[in-house]
Write a structure and sequence with these properties.
The complex is a heterodimer. Chain A is an alpha+beta fold. Chain A is built from nine helices and nine strands. In chain A, the strands form four sheets. A three-stranded mixed β-sheet of chain A has the order 7-9-8, with helices on one face. Chain A has a two-stranded antiparallel ribbon with strand order 1-2. Chain A has a two-stranded antiparallel sheet with strand order 3-4. Chain A is elongated, with a radius of gyration of 37 Å. The two termini of chain A are 69 Å apart. By secondary structure, chain B is an alpha+beta fold. Chain B is 64% helix and 13% strand. Chain B has four helices and three strands, in the order H-E-H-H-E-E-H. A three-stranded antiparallel β-sheet of chain B has the order 1-3-2. In chain B, a hairpin with a 7-residue loop joins strand 2 (59-64) and strand 3. The longest helix of chain B is centred in the C-terminal third of the chain and has 32 residues, at 79-110. The mean pLDDT of chain B is 85. The A-B interface holds A 1-2, 4, 29-30, 32-41, 43-44, 56-58, 60-66 and B 11, 25-28, 30-31, 42-49, 51-52, 55, 66-73.
């Protein structure tokens, strides 16, 4: 049998669409075998063959067949709903290629479930083999979807596979959601700046001795000296009142408290008025002199 | 005078006539009508007419498998269709002879 001309298939579909206000059985009756008739004319006319307007063809067909009046006379909201439904169906139909890819992915999931014994919706990004298998599945699925490949004798098998995939869509969506959330959480952990151990982010780390007593600890490093975690510096309670003051106000306050030696450093900070004190830390040098180091906002970072 | 308008009113009779002696499928019937001189005939009109006459019981159909192309649906006249053709033939002959006479008279008068 010769291959059907895609232009003719499209033309027949357009004619059917133009008749879509009629009952489906009437549309079938009017267009049954039309592709064969057009293919015959195409073979007869050769290069001269042209299809013309499907709308005009449909009009002529329905007039001569005596079905000019709509079988479903629709008015007002019913007509609006009918149009909405028709447009929605057209939209869903335009998503068919997405379905072809989705069913390939779900088919891989089903095979993964059979081989490995557990459902794994999203393939591992580093597993090239998994992606190759999915790419092959996608190719096969698209070829069948486009009608490039046909296996009429195995139609029941393809139909069952489609039904199986439809059944698997829901569990797939649930597992995919869980897996994606998991990935998102892991990414958030990596970006959090906290210490990640055993899958959790830790913002506070304590070192305990054998008796469970807390040991003094400032920084955790790995064997190369790379800093894994630094305990956030806490402003000593006596300096808390000077946070948010200007440098001059803070200096005056520190003099009152008995700290004449003051150092200042400026850092870029978000959400702090330029020139205001962000932090104050106390230190003593070898000679026993007390010094207070002020951290002052130098304006916002971009 | 627009012959397509004339054809519209007589398409049923024309389709029944080409099926009188030999069954045919859609495009084959279009071709026979064109060969008979109805070059302007729209194929959709013929297909629609065939479907309508099938539904009304004037025609019957059967499918013939084809080796090198799609299966073809053949139309054939049922007794109801033959009766319809014979009635339409009489109507047309009456109409045509009246029209011929009228046009002939008009031609003479204008001389």
């Amino acid at each position: 049998m010769s291959k059907p001309d895609p232009k003719i298939i499209q033309f027949v579909q357009d004619v059917r669409d133009a008749l879509s206000d009629l009952l489906p059985s009437t549309v079938d009756q009017l267009t049954e075998g039309l592709d064969a008739e057009l293919a015959e004319r195409s073979a007869d006319e050769g290069a001269k063959f042209s299809l013309g307007s499907p709308a005009a063809f449909a009009r002529e067909l329905r007039e001569s067949a005596g079905v000019a009046s709509n079988h479903l006379p629709l008015t007002g909201i019913a007509r609006w709903l009918h149009t909405l439904l028709k447009k929605s169906l057209q939209f869903l139909k335009s998503l068919t290629p997405v379905w072809w890819l989705l069913r390939a992915l779900i088919a891989w999931d089903a095979i993964h479930l059979l081989v490995r014994g557990y459902f794994h919706a999203v393939p591992d990004s580093e597993s090239t083999l998994q992606w190759w298998i999915i790419a092959i599945f996608a190719f096969v699925s698209v070829q069948f979807g486009r009608g490039v490949w046909r296996l009429p004798s195995l139609r029941w098998l393809l139909a069952s596979a489609n039904i199986l995939v439809v059944i698997l869509v829901l569990p797939f969506a649930v597992v995919a959601n869980v897996e994606l959330n998991d990935t998102r959480n892991r990414l958030a952990m990596l970006e959090s700046g906290g210490l990640i151990a055993k899958g959790y982010v830790h913002y506070e780390v304590r070192a305990l001795d054998a008796n469970g007593a807390i040991l003094p600890m400032k920084t955790l490093t790995d064997s190369d000296g790379y800093e894994i975690f630094t305990e956030p510096e806490v402003t000593p309670a006596e300096f808390v009142p000077i946070i948010g003051l200007t440098k001059e106000q803070a200096t005056a306050k520190l003099l009152e408290l008995g700290y004449p030696r003051i150092q200042s450093k400026f850092v870029l900070a978000v959400g702090v008025v330029k020139g205001n004190v962000i932090d104050a830390q106390h230190s003593s040098d070898a000679a026993g002199h007390d010094t207070v180091a002020l951290t002052i906002s130098a304006g916002p970072t971009k | 005078m627009d012959s397509t308008q004339l054809l519209k009113g007589t398409l049923d009779a024309a389709v029944l006539a080409v099926l009188e002696n030999e069954d045919g499928y859609g495009y084959d019937i279009v071709r026979r009508l064109r060969d008979a001189g109805f070059n302007e005939i729209g194929e959709a009109s013929v297909y629609g007419t065939l479907r309508r006459m099938f539904v009304s019981g004037a025609l019957s159909t059967y499918v013939v498998a084809s080796v090198d192309g799609p299966h073809r649906k053949y139309y054939s006249l049922k007794p109801e269709g033959r009766a319809m053709l014979s009635a339409q033939r009489k109507t047309w002959q009456k109409f045509a002879s009246a029209m011929n006479q009228l046009l002939g008279t008009t031609k003479k008068a204008s001389k």
